[in-house]
Every structure is written in C-alpha cells, then in structure tokens.
C-alpha cells in the first residue's frame, strides 16, 4: 500500500465481479467471512455463468487493489420481486467482507453504498441485510437501522 491515505483510497474502485477474479483471491476473501470450501475453476465458471443469467437482479461487486491486483472487498445484492406494495421489489445485501489487511480504508462502506445504490436504481422500495451483533454499528454508519429479528434454519 502507498503511504498516503488519500492515494490508498484512489487505488480502490468498486466494479462487478469478473470471471478472472477467482485468480485474484476472490474465494480466499470469502473464506474470511464464512465457510467457503475449495471451488474448482469449473465450478466457479459454472456458478459465474448461472449468476450472469440473472442480469441486474443479482449483482456481485468487488474492489480490486490496483496496486496488488488482489480482490480486497466484495458484497452482493439480489432483487426479490414481490406482490405486496403494488408488486414492489426488495434488495437483499449479502456476503459483505473486506480483507483483514485492508480494513479501515472505508472499503466496506464503498461496497454497501454501491449495492444500496444498485437496489435503488432497480426500483426497490427498501434494501435489507442480516448481520452479526458485532457488525451492527458498521451498518448503522451506512444508514441501516435494526428492524425485527432474523431467523434461520440450516439444512447442513
């Protein structure tokens, strides 16, 4: 990383996931968030193609460090089409993670802003996410408010 914080921030831009990002540490970055076992090149290509068919209804963004070529942050948003509220849409933000060596550079906020703006541009009336109690303060700084209770049922 460069010495000045403003120059460091300029090295990072948010963009959509590309097929070549697997070789830039995308899977390893996801492993900092949760269980993400080995993904072969073929599995990655297959899932990438499958998600590409969703168009703007499922977007994965990344931030690549222009200096190192490494993916240092990511997140996704998918658009749920509803019948309620006059057939409205809701954005769901998922899988936001910043590399442990790049934290403190506001990259997480850049990712969340990008995903939130995408949901708004798709006509969503709201965007929601689930997070740990430890991450609540971060998302509040991004403009989110705690609402309701998350429930989960795991199948594995």
Automatic annotation (TrEMBL):
- Which enzyme class, named as a word? transferase
Q: What is its EC number?
A: 2.3.1.4
Q: Where is the N-acetyltransferase domain?
A: 12-156
| Membrane topology (UniProt) | Peripheral membrane protein
| Superkingdom of source | Eukaryota
- What catalytic reaction does the record list? D-glucosamine 6-phosphate + acetyl-CoA = N-acetyl-D-glucosamine 6-phosphate + CoA + H(+)
Q: Which InterPro entries match?
A: Acyl_CoA_acyltransferase, GNAT_dom, GNPNAT1-like
Coiled coil residues, start to end: none
Tell me the CDD domains matching this sequence: NAT_SF
Give the metabolic or biological pathway: Nucleotide-sugar biosynthesis; UDP-N-acetyl-alpha-D-glucosamine biosynthesis; N-acetyl-alpha-D-glucosamine 1-phosphate from alpha-D-glucosamine 6-phosphate (route I): step 1/2
A Pfam match is: Acetyltransf_1
Entry's Gene Ontology BP terms? N-acetylglucosamine metabolic process; UDP-N-acetylglucosamine biosynthetic process
Please verify whether the record's keywords include Membrane.
yes
Q: Which residues does UniProt assign to the signal peptide?
A: none
Q: Name one GO molecular function term.
A: glucosamine 6-phosphate N-acetyltransferase activity
Summarize subunit and interaction data from the UniProt record for this chain.
Homodimer.
- Write out the similarity annotation: Belongs to the acetyltransferase family. GNA1 subfamily.
Q: What is this protein called?
A: Glucosamine 6-phosphate N-acetyltransferase
> Which species?
Escallonia herrerae
